[in-house]
Amino acid sequence: MPEARGIRPVETPALDPTPGQTVGPFFGFALPVPGGAEIAPAGAAGAVRLHGRVLDGAGSPVPDAMVELWQSDTDGAVVQQAGSLRRSAGEFTGWGRAATDADGWYEFWTRVPGGGFFSLAVFARGLMHRLFTRAYLPTAASDPWLSTLPQDRAGTLVARAQDDGFVFDIHLQGDQETVFLDFSARDRR
Predict the structure, then answer these.
(1) Burial class (CB in 10 A: 0-12, 13-18, 19+), 100
(2) In whole angstroms, how far apart are CA 123 and each of 85, 118, 152?
(3) Of 11, 38, 116, 159, which sits with the fewest C-beta atoms within 10 Å of its C-beta?
(4) Beta bridge partner(s), residue 118
(5) Which has the closest alpha carbon to 166: 122, 124, 113?
(6) Is 27 helix (H, G, I), strand (E, B) or coil?
(7) 35-69: b or e for each residue (b if 16 or more CB lie within 10 Å)?
(8) pLDDT for 102-161, tens place per residue?
(9) Where, if anywhere, are coiled coils annotated (predicted)?
């Protein structure tokens, strides 16, 4: 288009791209489901508690995070059945979801996974994508993948035993940052 007399086209400065929308915080009212953290009935024979805190880089609790748990059954088989949101009494689906409370605590009632670890996904304010990690049982220290990590980093993936189950704190950043798994290469196929 020709220039009009005395009017010059406006030059638009180069702009840096801006980040996309973060994944929260909206978990407290949108995603928890009734009984979502009770994969096995609390207090039932064989039920264990997996609980801990989600903490930021300064060690402060993250009160609006959500943790998802995926695990094998006690024999090590991955349960593959529909209906994870609608559990029947005694039915084990291997999946659960728990929101953190005001002090950053989450809690699941489940069973000991035969595979030696719980798979976890963390959603929290400020994250562009969910974070994936594992909580290994203290007895699984010889796991082939876990043993490839430096000992101090591998230690961030091992849950502590407690009378009724296990404690696993998730540190999003900082000196004690939990090891997170990167599946982004899989997504590029």
Answers:
(1) buried
(2) 18, 16, 25
(3) 11
(4) 135
(5) 113
(6) helix
(7) ebbbbbeeeeeebbbbbbbbbbeeeebbbbbbbbb
(8) 999 999 999 999 989 999 999 988 887 889 999 999 998 788 999 999 989 999 999 999
(9) none
Q: Which residue has the tokens 């020709």?
A: 2
Show the beta-strand stretches assigned E in the chain. Answer: 47-55, 66-70, 95-99, 105-111, 117-123, 131-136, 160-162, 165-167, 170-171
Show the tokens assigned to 20. 């996309």
Token code pair at residue 50: 């997996």
**Is cis: bond before 113, omega within 30 of 0?**
no
Domains of the chain by range and CATH? 27-187 (2.60.130.10)
The structure's pTM equals 0.81
What integer pLDDT is reported at residue 84 of this predicted model? Answer: 60
Residue 117 to residue 98: CA distance in whole angstroms: 18
Q: Are 149 and 171 in contact (CB under 8 A)?
A: no
